[in-house]
Amino acid sequence: MKEVELYDTTLRDGAQGEGVSFSLEDKLRIIQKLDALGIHYIEGGWPGSNPKDARFFKEAKKIVLKQAQLTAFGSTRRARQKAEQDSNIRHLLKAETEIITVFGKSWDFQVSDILKVDLDENLHMIFDSVDYLKKQNKKVFYDAEHFFDGFRANRNYALKTLLVAQDAGADCIILCETNGGILTSYLKEVVSFVKSRIKIPLGIHTHNDSGVAVSNTIAAVEEGCTQVQGTINGYGERCGNADLCLIIPNLKLKLNIDCISDENLKKLSETAHYIAELANMIPRNNQPFVGKSAFAHKGGVHIDGVVKNAKSYEQINPVLVGNRRRFLLSELSGKSNILLKAKELNLDINKGDPKTKKILELLQNLENQGYQFEAAESSFELLMNKALGRYKDFFKLEGFRIVIEKKDKEITSKASVQIKVNETKKHSTADGDGPIDALDRALRKALTDFYPVLAEMHLSDFKVRVLDAKAGTAAKVRVLIQSQDKKDTWSSVGVSENIIEASWQALRDSMEYKLWKEKDAQNKISTRNEGHSARRDPKVAGD
Q: Which region among 71-85, 327-341, 397-411 has the lowest average model confidence (pLDDT)?
């Protein structure tokens, strides 16, 4: 079986993506997560480029990695300097990693127009840098930047840059598709040609500007590359790098290349979401393998097929990559969808039950009004329990009032809420950054005296969608609110011509769901305790 090593550059190349930002603490957490996933090499950063990366390598020494090895990244020496005197090379050595990755130019255009040195001097820069680092007892990976564009422009010179790195003692040469514009058919030809002329291991590093970074990477592996470079979630400059969350399962499950263990593969989805959180990026629902929608089924025919045999509409078992199958609820749903959701929620209904038809009709009517439950499953769970008569209100709204005032350049929002819990009324007011924030604060303030558990939750996202733009200011809007506590995240929905009313509906559902969830958990604990008591006490057990 072919061996392929995984090289992650999320902390360096991935951090160059727009909107991606890692603190020093984030980077230290991420290397531990990547190590647990089974990544072989983790590129920690460019120690000569900024103080944070230099500090990172000092702090990283305190962390014991079980499998992964850290690499420091930097450029070849500058023109007309000795490698041992070059500040970048010295910073690389100060990082004290066993492996160092250096990049150099393969494209004659880049050498003459960007570096502004002659072609021979560029070859000396490559040789001297690799040779010097090898003499310092380092394992050296050489990144051939812009190799495919360079090969197309001047095949002989591009190949010569690789041969120079090989002669200097590089342990692996990585062919970099830096601009992301090469199509897979041409890339395969080039990799095959290089493989026949280079004796040391080859790697591949691709960018996604043409949307083919993953297919280019897989094609390169099929042509003989044994090191794969990429980033988690495909983060990177411009359109990003090759996404390791797609590459890893394709290599392992489709090409039978055992790049990580079966157990580690199950950590893939959780790792993708964890790093997205630290990167302050919203996870892509439609990301293959690890996205929330990767194994989500909406159409009745699809769901019926998956229930009978998952292979009918799924390429793999979602459990293999740590994901899960989901059945979405919408106006496209049939009774099967409702029954599957009911089973998921431990609700006892069947296909012939009039309640099933009632729920389906209710769902279709609400979606016709603009509701969307596939992205707000907590609202649908409440809807089902209410339709089945299992739900008891935790509170009733007596009324609310929101005042928005503008004085000079300052805008203030104040909300007043009156609610009723059993027979007790409670009135509260709160200021907020906006009308919805003020409403959220006032409602939470009123309810926390009755339900202290609400202090654990907070709103984490707020989205507004205009449903019919042609209606102008009279258009209906759909509001989606995402909430979370220490354990879970859930979403709720509201629809109205009035954005405040739509927001209120979603806000109400978010708090009701939290209370319902806590009550349900307590009921399960009570039931288990009663069962234990019955087993301990023979009189209770009925003997």
A: 327-341
Cα-to-chain-centroid distance, residue 201: 31
pLDDT computed for residue 50 by the predictor: 78
Distance CA 393, CA 379 (A): 14
SS3 385: helix
Question: pLDDT tens, 428-439?
Answer: 999 998 899 999
Query: What is the distance between the alpha carbons of residues 339 and 350, in angstroms, rounded to a whole number?
Result: 7
Q: How many CA atoms lie within 13 A of 301 on its CB side?
A: 0
The counts of H helices and E strands in the chain are 19, 16
Looking up tokens 């309810």 gives 447
C-alpha distances (whole Å) from 212 to each of 20, 112, 152, 251, 455 are: 22, 29, 18, 16, 46
Q: Which of 74, 47, 199, 178 is nearest to 130 (CA)?
A: 74
Strands, E, within 98-214: which ranges? 99-105, 139-145, 172-177, 202-206
CB atoms within 10 A of CB 491: 23
**What residue spans of 405-455 are helical by DSSP H?**
435-448
Overall average pLDDT of the 529-537 stretch = 53
Chain centre to alpha carbon of residue 531: 41
- In whole angstroms, give the CA distance from residue 422 to residue 402: 25
pLDDT at 335: 59
Per-residue pLDDT tens over the stretch 91-120: 999 999 999 999 999 999 999 999 899 999
Structural domains in the chain? 5-278 (3.20.20.70), 296-374+381-387 (no CATH), 396-513 (3.30.160.270)
Could you read off the pLDDT of 506-522 as tens digits, one per residue? 999 999 999 988 876 56
At position 407, the amino acid (one-letter code) is K
Is 265 within 8 Å of 321 (Cβ atoms)?
Answer: yes
SS (H, E, C) 61-95: CCCCCCCCEEEEEEECCCCCCCHHHCHHHHHHHHC
pLDDT over threshold 60, residue 543: no
Element of type H or E holding 326: strand 326-327
Q: Which secondary structure element, helix H or strand E, spans residue 415, and what is its range?
A: strand 410-421
State the pTM of this model.
0.70
User: Whole-angstrom Cα distance, residue 475 to residue 74?
Assistant: 55
At 229-246, the pLDDT tens digits run 999 999 999 999 999 999
Strand partners of residue 140: 100
Closest CA to 233 of 47, 19, 491: 19
Helix (H/G/I), strand (E/B), else coil: 259: coil
- Which amino acid belongs to residue 285? N
